[in-house]
Amino acid sequence: MTEYKFYKSRSKAFKLLFLSSLFVFAGIYLLNQPATSKFMTWLCILFFGMGIPLGLFQLLDRRPQIIINKLGIFDRTVHRDFINWEIVQDAYIVTIHRQRFICLVVDEQFEPSKARGELTQKMVNL
Q1: Could you tell me which of 63, 66, 112, 67 has the C-alpha nearest to residue 87?
Q2: Whole-number pLDDT of residue 1
Q3: Domain boundaries in the chain?
Q4: pTM of the model
Q5: What is the Cβ-side half-sphere exposure of residue 120, based on CA atoms within 13 angstroms?
Q6: How many Å from the N-terminal Cα to the C-terminal Cα in the chain?
């Protein structure tokens, strides 16, 4: 079986960097205007300024997000180990707001949230 690797989108990282920089520069411009609130301007600069390091991380992180091979499926954001094919009963694709998701139906004995913290387990129950 061929190994498939899926990576983060570089175009989304560039979009985040561009839009964050745009709002930061707008905040810097408004900082020099006498009629604007300095608190709200600094809040805008700090909030949208956080998007710049996040966008750089998204752009420079070249680790695969999802790996599908003969062993199973590995999703770096959800689970730390491979989800073996013996556990997977069914798989299907769901589209939500033009975003495609792969959904897996697994055995009831396989509950990756058991190894996580108490807050995560409460969120799973929701």
Answers
A1: 112
A2: 75
A3: 4-60, 78-125
A4: 0.69
A5: 9
A6: 37
